[in-house]
Amino acid sequence: MENFGDVQKVRSLQRFSFLPTPQKGVSATPRRWYARRLRNPEKELSRRVNRQIEPTASSLWSEVAGRLKGALNDTTYRTWFAEAEGVELTDDSLVISVPNDFTREWIEGHFLGLIGAAARDATGQERRIRLTVADQPRETVAASSAEPKRKHGDGGLNAKYTFDSFVIGSSNRFAHAAALAVAEAPAQAYNPLFIYGGTGLGKTHLMQAIASYVGTHSSELSVRYVTSETFMNDFINSLRDKRIEGFKQRYRTYDLLLIDDIQFFEHKERIQEEFFHTFNSIYEAGGQIVISSDRPPREISTLEERLRSRFEWGLITDIQPPDLETRIAILRKKVKTDGTHVPDPKVLEFIAGRISTNIRELEGALTRVVAFSSLTGRPMTEDLAQDVLKDVFPQGEVRQVSIERIQELVSDRFGLSLEELCGERRSQNIVYPRQIAMYLSRELTDASLPKIGRQFGGRDHTTVIHATTKIAGLIREDRSVYNLVQELTARIKQAR
User: Fold this and answer.
1) Residue 22: is it exposed, middle or buried by C-beta count within 10 angstroms (0-12/13-18/19+)?
2) What's the pLDDT tens digit per position in 62-114?
């Protein structure tokens, strides 16, 4: 006798296309076929649906894009997603190709959560969203990420941080040269290399450039770049999981170890002790060590003397805030790299004049101006940049630096009167401060060469050119001159 419950299940499932409707006169065999499947109808339904629907990266991105269109206005969608494509789909990730680094960074900072939610709604499954630049060979990225020894704890080196993309200026020339020497000849040039400087000046860029260079040109060497936080977390987790021997074996066998922001080892005696032994093991095995910090070793409080002395074995070099010309060059390179069109060069000059102490803020300001212009359709002009940045960096509000103010501060610094600074006397104790003042006038004001010459006792513009060229050369060669110019620049800006 027929089981009434099974028949009811069959009838209820006949609405699905993959269950054929029994025909008249069919034997009991189809019923037995249904009965076998009906032991677990949910599993059968899932099996059939999954077999029929196999999304590709392109088809999934089409669905996600449709949801984004509904969530964003047309201008925003066209600006950031018009050229995006789905290029790779795995069980746990979706890779989306975008045209340039600028677009990738903006999407990662503003829309990544929205894309992830749209992908989850489309498939019913959580997937990690990764962005890649269209003209960047993904095979290279995949190959480098497959080598754990060249990755740091946050997922790998930033492909943008190379020596080619580093903008060299008087403030970082020596640090760049030292980093390149270490990359070209690990453990032969400067070991250890200690780079220090303020936040956002390029320390991490140089550190990762070394790691990338060695990884590319010396594939037989094992390389590890880590932040101090990653090193500490690895150590703590190893202690917790009783895997400390594995930690030691992992960190003490690298040919090149780079530790970023080591100042965070302050007040952490156990971490300092472990790093001391790690340092010794690598150094004695002929490996290279590179360290960065926001201040020199002697200024890191509670740093063990034995570590401090080891940091001072090799070369200690600093990175200073970039001058105006270097800041403009940094913005020009970023614009070129990102493929961004900035029709008015005064926009870059304005931004470079507004932010003077942090390269990250400098590039961030450019990103804000470009994004605002793109989103609103307003032309990218100096006036637009001023409107966008006036609330973001109020401390950098543009004010005019006068030549008179520069002359006053330089005279005070060298113990001269204004009459002596601008007079006819040509003794060395007056000519040098005068040249410094001319250089600062050229650097910090919009005054023309003839105007600067007139302000210094009616001198010819060629005298100003000679003065600025000479001081620029001394800045590159003599650290004391560089420090003097930086000190005077800071005082002039504070006094405005």
Assistant:
1) middle
2) 888 888 887 787 767 877 888 888 888 888 889 999 887 767 877 887 788 88
Question: How far, rounded to the nearest angstrom, does the alpha carbon of residue 386 sit from its chain's CA centroid?
Answer: 25
Question: Where do the H-state alpha helices sit in 218-290?
Answer: 228-240, 244-251, 269-284
Query: What are the CA-CA distances from residue 94 to residues 104, 142, 365 (Å)?
Result: 14, 14, 30
H or E element, residue 470: helix 461-477
Buried b (16+ CB within 10 A) or exposed e, 129-149: bbbbbeeeeeeebeebeeeee
Angle between helices 345-354 and 324-338 in degrees, nearest 10: 130
CA distances from 433 to 33, 442, 476, 488 (A): 99, 14, 17, 11
For residues 365 and 197, what is the distance between their CA atoms, to the nearest angstrom?
Answer: 21
Structure tokens at 488: 């005077």
Among candidate residues 353, 293, 364, the one with its CA nearest the CA of residue 326: 353
pLDDT of residue 320: 86
Backbone angles phi, psi at 260, to 5 degrees: -95, 140
Instruction: Please state, in angstroms and rounded to a whole number, the distance separating the CA atoms of residues 155 and 172.
Output: 27
pLDDT of residue 180: 92
pLDDT single digits (tens) 32-55 = 444 444 455 555 444 444 444 567
Task: Report residue 335: phi and psi, to 5°.
Answer: -60, -45
Strands 85-89, 93-98: pairing is antiparallel
Q: What distance in Å separates the CA atoms of residue 290 and residue 209, rounded to the nearest whole number?
A: 12
Q: Which residues contact 290 (CB under 8 A, 6 or more apart)?
A: 179, 182, 192, 193, 194, 195, 207, 210, 256, 257, 258, 259
Closest among 292, 209, 215 to 255, alpha carbons compared? 215
pLDDT at 53: 54
Length of the chain: 496
The model's confidence at residue 56, banded by pLDDT at 50, 70 and 90, is: confident
Q: Taking the model in full, what pTM does it have?
A: 0.51
DSSP 404-415: HHHHHHHHHHHT
pLDDT digits (tens, 9 = 90+) for 263-302: 888 888 888 888 999 999 999 889 999 999 988 888 887 7
Structure tokens at 71: 């969530």
**Which class for 205: exposed (0-12), middle (13-18), buried (19 or more C-beta within 10 A)?**
buried
Q: With 90 as the cut, is the pLDDT of residue 366 above it?
A: no
